[in-house]
């Protein structure tokens, strides 16, 4: 994925923490470059802000049937179970013990952009173990999106 690889190299001081786990045969996703860049920029920023400065951030991907799964995994504090259902709500924010407190738009924007491409976003998280945000893009629908433009 060109977007994800480019973001990993542009991660500034976090660059050494970002590990790419993308197979060479990962299918291309037909998507708006700017929107997809914003999605992964938000996810990488969240991972860097909430995880310990020395912990790795993994950008992974694989094909799953008719779709492509792309994920960002950190080893930060995790998200409490009662908050996981609300993290995609507009203006929902919680510092989760970090010094960062945004306006609560990042994950809402991620979900909106991914859904505009016919995909979905899921979060897996455990307290004290970290968080994985997975974006799934269906191959057929993303190809049709490009053909319609």
Can you describe this structure?
It is a single chain. With about 150 residues, the protein is an alpha+beta fold. It has one domain (about 1-149): 2-Layer Sandwich (Heat Shock Protein 90). The chain has five helices and five strands, in the order αβαββααββα. α2 links the parallel β1 (about 20) and β2. α1 packs across α2 and α2 packs antiparallel against α4. Residues about 145-149 have low confidence and may be disordered.
Summarize the structure.
The chain has helices at 2-9, 33-50, 81-84, 106-116, 139-148; strands at residues 18-21, 57-64, 67-74, 120-126, 130-138. With 149 residues, it is of the alpha+beta class.
- Identify the strand order in the major beta sheet: 1-2-3-5-4
**End-to-end gap:** 21 Å
Helix content: 25-40%
The percentage of residues in β strands lies in 15-25%
CATH architecture tag: 2-Layer Sandwich
Calculate Rg over CA atoms.
15 Å
Tags for this model:
single chain, 149 residues, alpha+beta, Heat Shock Protein 90, five-stranded mixed sheet, 5 helices, 5 strands, disordered C terminus
Task: List the SSEs and their pairings.
Layout: H1 2-9, E1 18-21, H2 33-50, E2 57-64, E3 67-74, H3 81-84, H4 106-116, E4 120-126, E5 130-138, H5 139-148
């Amino acid at each position: 994925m060109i977007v994800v690889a480019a973001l990993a190299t542009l991660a500034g001081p976090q660059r050494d923490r970002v590990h790419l786990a993308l197979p060479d045969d990962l299918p291309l996703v037909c998507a708006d470059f700017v929107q997809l860049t914003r999605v992964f920029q938000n996810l990488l920023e969240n991972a860097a802000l909430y995880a310990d400065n020395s912990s790795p951030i993994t950008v992974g991907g694989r094909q799953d049937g008719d779709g492509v799964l792309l994920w960002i995994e950190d080893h930060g504090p995790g998200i409490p179970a009662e908050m996981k259902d609300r993290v995609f709500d507009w203006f929902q924010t919680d510092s989760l013990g970090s010094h960062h407190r945004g306006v609560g738009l990042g994950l809402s924007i991620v979900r909106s952009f991914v859904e505009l491409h016919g995909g979905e976003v899921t979060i897996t998280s455990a307290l004290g173990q970290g968080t994985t945000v997975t974006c799934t893009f269906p191959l057929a629908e993303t190809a049709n999106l490009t053909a319609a433009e």
